[in-house]
Design goal:
The chain is 57% helix and 18% strand. The chain has a four-stranded antiparallel sheet with strand order 1-2-4-3, with helices on one face. The protein folds into two domains: 76 residues; 70 residues, 2-Layer Sandwich (Alpha-Beta Plaits). It is rod-shaped, with a radius of gyration of 51 Å. By secondary structure, the protein is of the alpha+beta class.
Length: 201
């Protein structure tokens, strides 16, 4: 019986299987690399798209911030303009009152009272001066109360001089309010309702 040597055939088969395994492994690695490359490209595309959207949003936000700043600037200018208009209207309205006020100050100042200083802050009036007696200051306060253009007199300071002082005039300071006094009720009661005409129900 003839003998057949199978070793070369087995060795060849082993080499073939090894080569097939290496080829399959290389193919698997190549496929994995391709898959990873596709995934990486996909995520890079998403990243690039998101970055472009972020830049667009930043640009829109910058434009909105600029518009908001412009609106605030316009509102500020509007407020200043309205304040100036309001001030001009108040000055226009108070011009007759100021004329009447300065015309009335000498009238409410009795003899024996000498004003040394007068200041006005809005509707607040401040008088400073010297008086021959406390009664003169009281008379001035009554005159202010009776005035149509001043009201609410309040004495803040009165300083009586020493007997040994050469200046025997008292220093005083009082405050009042500027404003036209509302007309009183004919019956003399400001709070009383107006009397109905006879025969009127």
């Amino acid at each position: 019986m003839a003998k057949i040597n199978l070793l070369p055939w087995r060795e060849e088969l082993r080499k073939q299987k090894k080569q097939e395994f290496l080829n399959a492994l290389a193919l698997g690695v190549l496929v994995a690399i391709m898959v990873l490359a596709v995934i990486h490209g996909y995520f890079e595309s998403l990243k690039s798209h998101q970055e472009s959207r972020n830049k667009l949003l930043e640009s829109e936000i910058s434009l909105l911030d600029k518009k908001i700043a412009d609106i605030k600037d316009i509102e500020e200018k509007k407020s200043k303009l309205l304040a100036k208009i309001d001030l001009l209207q108040k000055l226009q309205e108070s011009r007759p009152e100021i004329v009447h006020l300065f015309d009335d100050i000498p009238k409410v100042t009795p003899d024996g009272v000498f004003l040394t200083k007068f200041t006005q802050t809005a509707a607040d009036l401040a008088f400073e001066g010297k008086s021959q007696s406390n009664a003169r200051v009281s008379a001035m306060m009554r005159n202010i109360e009776a005035s149509q253009w001043m009201n609410t007199p309040t004495l803040t300071i009165i300083k009586i001089p020493d007997k040994d002082s050469q200046d025997q005039l008292s220093d005083f300071a009082l405050r009042a309010k500027q404003g036209k006094k509302p007309p009183e009720n004919p019956n003399g009661d400001k709070n009383a309702p107006t009397a109905k005409k006879r025969g009127q129900r």
